[in-house]
Amino acid sequence: MVERPNKPSSLVATPGLPPQPTVSFSDDNSLVTATLPTGESITVLLYGATVISWKDSSSSEKFWLSSAAKLDGTKPVRGGIPLIFPVFGPPPPDHAQTSSLPQHGFARTSRWEFLGKSTSESSGNQQTGDLSVKLDFGLSSAANGLDPKAKEAWPYKFNLIYSVTLNRKDLTTSLVVTNDDERPFDCQVLMHTYLKVNDITKVSISGLDNSSYIDKVDAASTKTQSGEIQIEGETDRVYTADGPVTVAEGGKTLYTVTRDNLSNVVVWNPWIEKAKGMGDFEPKDGYKEMLCVEPGSVGGWQTLEKGDAFEGAQTISLGV
Ligand code: BG6
């Protein structure tokens, strides 16, 4: 062994640089977790690029995830944020382009690729490492992970980039859809967020007053919202509205959802009977602890010509 009297000692950290966000993978590479130096974290399942967990710095979970949710790629995830593309709900039989697709399309049943992470400084407290981390995921018509049902039923060339950005007090998810085909295609986009609440009977949703909505539990009739929304039974409504949507419980604001280029918001709670009928919805009284507030563009179709792109995003802020 060569003696080196002036051997350099290892560098533990670069002095002056705050700690950085970390990104790690599960052993089977199915999950990506990003953690901020201050403790907030997100976990994304590559199947569906489904965000399945968002925790604040005290490890308090913000998303509802069914205890019977399948995370093995055999079924869309019941919880977190399943991503809906290119059709919302059961495909309309009179829309030839999507009519052979499964309910809510194939983005949530395809395995996405992790494209990488980037970090940036949010508003400046250098000492506590007040940083954000962005994870990018991709899915294209050429991807190995594309749900095999999609190729036949929706034979267009497309590219999707989904970005999930974690800040200390908010989470942004943003989708860019690009048409790489020679032909135009129609699509819909929706972020099916399952927010966690403590007691649905104490929840009120504001920001949708005077907005028109389609009431899916009342023969898809069109109605106008009056005042705040309370959940008192099965609720399945497609609102068309601008502006932030706020979810409060017992008068305290839990979440504020803002949207970019997504003109619809679905408000969904299955309540007792519907929850019983879903095999992957557990516990059965879990409907008391969840509320879906789902920003999307689902009122009509986004028609993308060759080379066109569509981008939509949501930001969920804690409190505010
Ligand atoms: C909501 C729809 O977005 O998703 C509901 O408005 C639907 O009608 C719900 O029941 C859940 O859908 P799925 O396919 O995940 O069971």
Automatic annotation (TrEMBL):
The active site is at H192, E294. Its EC number is 5.1.3.15. Residues 1-24 are annotated as: Disordered. It catalyses: alpha-D-glucose 6-phosphate = beta-D-glucose 6-phosphate. InterPro entries: Aldose_1/G6P_1-epimerase (IPR008183), G6P_1-epimerase (IPR025532), Gal_mutarotase_sf_dom (IPR011013), GH-type_carb-bd (IPR014718). GO terms for molecular function: carbohydrate binding; glucose-6-phosphate 1-epimerase activity. The keyword Isomerase applies. Substrate binds at R78, Q103, R108. GO terms for cellular component: cytoplasm. The keyword GTP-binding does not apply. It comes from the Eukaryota. Keywords: Isomerase. GO terms for biological process: carbohydrate metabolic process. Catalyzes the interconversion between the alpha and beta anomers from at least three hexose 6-phosphate sugars (Glc6P, Gal6P, and Man6P). Belongs to the glucose-6-phosphate 1-epimerase family. This is Glucose-6-phosphate 1-epimerase. It comes from Triangularia setosa.
